[in-house]
Amino acid sequence: MNKIVSREVLNSETIMLDIEAPAIARKALPGQFIIFRVDELGERVPLTVAGTDAEKGTVRIIFQMVGKSTMQLGRKQVGETIASFVGPLGRPSELDHLGGKKVAVIGGGLGTAIAYPQATYLHEIGAHVDFIAGFRTKDLIILEDEMRAVSDNLYVATDDGSNGRKGFVTDVLKERIDAGEKYDLVIAIGPLVMMRAVANLTKPYEIDTLVSMNTIMVDGTGMCGCCRLTVGGEIKFSCVDGPDFDAHLVDFDEAIRRSKAYLEQEAYDREREKEKEESHRCRLTGEVRHG
Amino acid sequence: MGEKRKPNMSPVKVTMPEQPAEIRRSNFGEVALGYTAEMAMEEATRCLQCKHRPCVKGCPVNVRIPEFIAKVAEGDFLEAYRILSSTNNLPAVCGRVCPQEKQCESRCVRGIKHEAVGIGRIERFVADWYLENAKDKLVPPPCNHRKVAIVGSGPAGLTCAGDLAKLGYDVTVFEAFHVAGGVLMYGIPEFRLPKALVQSEIKLLSELGVKIKCDMVIGRVFSLDELMEEEGFEAIFIGSGAGLPSFMNIKGENLNQVYSANEFLTRVNLMQAWRWPEAATPINIGKRVAVIGGGNVAMDAARSAQRLGADEVYIIYRRSEEELPARLEEVEHAKDEGIIFKLLSNPVEILGNDAGWVTGIRCISMELGEPDASGRRRPVAIPGSEFDIELDTVIVAIGQSPNPLLRDTTPDLNCHSWGGIIVDDTLATSKEGVWAGGDAVTGAATVILAMGAGKQAAASIDEYLKAKHEEV
Fold it and tell me: Mean pLDDT across the stretch B295-324?
């Protein structure tokens, strides 16, 4: 059982929680993830660690309420507990050699929250960080000040142009490369299609590119093989071999197909969860009561 | 009492009551229903009480078999349990999943001419009787305040923990999953080993003073060095199991609806996917399922798929029936339940559609050639004999290798190239103060062998800590 010690609504679909987990807070490094279970019948869902506070003994997670489990987690309030919070899992990102180097950190949507700890770490060890963040629309932009604080240049683009800069993260990246920026590494974190697009863009330029693979998992410790991917023609497990992989070796088409294994159940669960939420919505304030 | 009774010379075991195959194939209730007290006492009188006790030598945890059976014959089930549990920390588990026919019962004098005494069945009765009827909580022995950490709460870890707790050590078991039990919880299905029963036996260990911490992935949240240097553990036993599934490296293995047996069984057993949507973890079964492999895990997966509503379930195995590594009893149960055995067939490709979902499997027929290194006749492909089976789901049950997490995070823990942890005769690893046993050392084997290793490691750890504290 782990307690929620702070909760913040970042936008209409994104929640930030600090969870009491002192042992994990002490150990987690950028790139690692945790697995949570809301209650005794809950599924095991992986989420990348968005930050830690070793002194307070808390681990920060930022997530979109897109499925049953994340919707349930998003409704949890400060002081409430969840059944499981396990980690840190996966290999930490290998960033230590990048001091003094030039790195483009790319986050798509929620991926920005996951890329943020890496940008912070790179900034701290003296790398030059260009942070490129993409969102569907202006209202969904999160962590803008935080990203600015840890980057040398911040570029925020929206798909619909509502923040004044229309385009995808790949458009911005291409612009920077064509303007002569020489990146030693590109780190791309976000939806699979976005990461595939970044990989396809950087490949002809031969820029080393790292992606964080957010596959479906069960145990998260190498035991089940649910998270397997093809990387450079070999089977790799995202949980113990990753989650970071060389973007130019990942079979994204296969990963995208595998991410759809439970679409039907996910859609059914989501609808039922929405109905449940509606039945708890206060007619006066519009807020969702819980419990 | 004391007077010499005449043994019951019935040539066969008292029959074990079972759920009929046509009913059990669609439920998760236990297949074998267990002896009544009368049946257990009757079977117990078949034991000759041999002085040289050959059966005990066949038991990896040295259960005092004739002694506990004598008590059952007398109807003193509590004393029978005390004798049984003095060396076996998980008797209700062992009574169900041990391959007795290869161990204790294979040495039984009664088995020379007729059927051996049903030692496993009597053991199961005694353990179940105790769980149902025992009123008093166990009393932990005085604690010596020497802390021992156990990594993994499967059969090896629980046995080691129980033995050390009985000796007075302050034992903490770390489990990566949210429930203790390891393979007993995630792997072996409910119809062979009810989960409530596993938890009851674990609860008895807690009563003995064993602390169990779930959701703790050792190697990640604490390294072995941190456990010793910062958390104050003086010795560590690693029983982390064989948790890394093998795949065949054939085309189509990453299609949707190809599961490792580990994933399939974990979703069903531990995550209770059969209760979706009430339980949140989903699973897809489809109408036609094939399980690749011929071991107990393959039988478990096939029989689970059947129970989850598949119309046709195949076992695909490249050798013949004689070489099936599964227990005969499991094979018979699977056949009775309607599992279709495609023997001497080797998968060459899993077939799929454009969207990436399984549509079938292509196999090639095999014939048996000369014996190979394992002494079994080597299966050889018959050229041009490929055939396809239409399928919705493929479950790969061809084995597991030891979990890589600890060796990846503990550089001074020496391992074989195939992943097994290297140990000496006392089960000590290359790292001072660290022992290992079970599947993490041997690769995938049986529950009882893991328990035997846990027992041996507990004795080694006891000896080490005693010597260490005498020195200072």
Answer: 95
Residues of chain A contacting residue B220, judged by C-beta atoms under 8 Å apart:
27, 87-89
The percent of residues in chain B predicted with pLDDT above 90, rounded, is 87
Please identify among residues 79-98 of chain A the ones whose CB lies closer than 8 Å to any CB of chain B: 83-89
Provide the total of helices (H) and of strands (E) in chain B, helices listed first: 18, 16
**C-alpha span between B113 and B103 (Å, rounded):** 17
CATH number of B247-398: 3.50.50.60
Provide the chain B residues 177-206 that lie in CB contact (below 8 A) with chain A. Answer: 177-178, 186
How close does chain B come to A36, measured CA to CA in Å? 10
The alpha carbons of chain A give a radius of gyration, in whole angstroms, of: 19
Q: What is the DSSP string of B312-349?
A: EEEEE-SS-GGG--S-HHHHHHHHHTTPEEE-SEEEEE
Can you spell out the DSSP letters for A56-106?
TTEEEEEEE--SHHHHHHHH--TT-EESEEEEEESPPP--GGGTT-EEEEE
> What stretch(es) of chain B map to CATH 1.10.1060.10?
21-133
> What is the per-residue pLDDT for B379?
92
Give B421-441 pLDDT, tens digit per residue. Answer: 999 999 999 999 999 999 999
Cα–Cα distance, B165 to B202 (Å, whole number): 13
Per DSSP, chain A holds a count of helices (H) and strands (E) of 9, 16
Q: Which residue spans of chain B are classified as CATH 3.50.50.60?
A: 147-243+401-471, 247-398
Mean pLDDT for chain B overall: 94
Among the ranges given (A13-17, A281-285, B218-222), the one the predictor scored with the smallest mean pLDDT: A281-285
Q: Please tell me the distance from the alpha carbon of residue B339 to that of residue B289, in angstroms, as a whole number.
A: 10
**ipTM field:** 0.92
Q: Confirm or reject CATH 1.10.274.10 for domain B21-133, answering yes or no.
A: no
Answer yes or no: are the C-beta atoms of A82 and A76 closer than 8 Å: yes
Q: CB-based contacts of B119: which residues, under 8 Å, 6+ apart?
A: B55, B65, B69, B100, B104, B105, B108
pLDDT at B275: 87
CATH number attached to the domain at B147-243+401-471: 3.50.50.60
Q: Which tokens in the block code for residue B54? A: 């050959």
Query: Which B-chain residues 224-253 have CB contacts (< 8 A) with chain A?
Result: 243-245, 247, 249, 253
Percentage of residues in chain A having pLDDT higher than 90: 89
- Quick check: A23 and B272 CB within 8 A? no
CA angle B281, B284, B288 (to 5 degrees): 155
Element (H, E) at A199: helix A192-202
The Cα A130–Cα A108 span in angstroms is 14
Quick check: bond before B20 cis, omega within 30?
no
Side-chain half-sphere exposure of A174, counting CA atoms within 13 A: 12
